Amino acid sequence: MKVSVSRYSLTSLLLIVSMAVLSWVLERVLPLSVEFFRFPLNMVLLALWCWAIFELHRTAGRFVVARYLLSRQATITSVLLLAAGCMAMGLQAKPATDSYLFILLNLFVITQLSLVTLRGWRDGSGIRWVFIFCHLGLLLALIAGFWGAPDTRIMRTELMSEPTKTALCQSGEVVQLDYKLSLVDFKADYYENGAPSAYEAEVDIDGRRVVLRVNHPHRVAFGEHIYLTSFEQKAEGTCCIVQIVRQPWRVVMFVGIVLLLAGAVLIFIRGPKR
Predict the structure, then answer these.
(1) What is the CA radius of gyration of the chain?
(2) How far apart are CA 180 and CA 132, in angstroms?
(3) 205 and 89 in one domain?
């Protein structure tokens, strides 16, 4: 048993080093563009990944890879990588999804979590609902963040009295919106030194007027929000810059969070396992 634990621990260390080296090489040989994996390619890759997961689960006893992914050392490694990935996302300036290391780490985490979920969703006493809610909820949230990242779009557009239906992505791509936007009114308060202290914009969205404030976005759809980011004075009048965030996989993330909360509630109701 000690030999097995030591072997799996060494495997985890070699795996982390290999992923770091591979990502370093790939970033210099083949620059990554996450938008390349946008729908439908991400769905094709997701389907292939699901097939590979079920095959690993079905033949878990015959392959060393599957046995390692179901080991305690792999679980510990997965938790540590997940924590490190969350810290990196909060500290670095550029999006973590533009890194090969982020892709490799997340692929390992969701693969390991998927196999553990498939193995443990039931036991001799029946279905383990708390286990399912907690593990499946976390899995769905991670899948939405990983496989849905290429479909997430952050766009900006300038609003004035003339309606517009176009926005500019971070990549420079011009996107046609499903609605028209125009600036109806703008109000701002200023400090004594002339710097703005607060401001808001009344915006027309396809004939419906809404008020945008900083850090108070308007929800156009469940996965699409409009943020007021800044403004400037032009010869034609006030121009407001708004940011449009489109997240098609937000509903998957929401379902995952709901399942996690349901699992937490069940744990609280049932109390500690005796």
Answers:
(1) 24
(2) 43
(3) no
Closest C-alpha to 172, from 17, 77, 33: 33
Question: In degrees, to the nearest 5, what angle opens at C-alpha 8 toward C-alphas 4 and 13?
Answer: 150
Q: Identify whether 123 is part of a domain.
A: yes
Q: Which residues contact 153 (CB under 8 A, 6 or more apart)?
A: 169, 175, 244, 245, 246
* pLDDT number for residue 203: 95
Range scoring the smallest mean pLDDT among 48-57, 116-125, 202-211, 242-251: 116-125
Q: Which domain holds residue 29?
A: 2-151
Q: How many domains does the chain have?
A: 2
Q: Which residue has the tokens 């990983």?
A: 146
What residues contact 172, with CB distance under 8 A and at least 6 apart?
A: none
List, for residues 140-190, the tens digit of each pLDDT value: 999 998 899 899 999 999 999 999 999 999 878 899 999 999 999 999 998
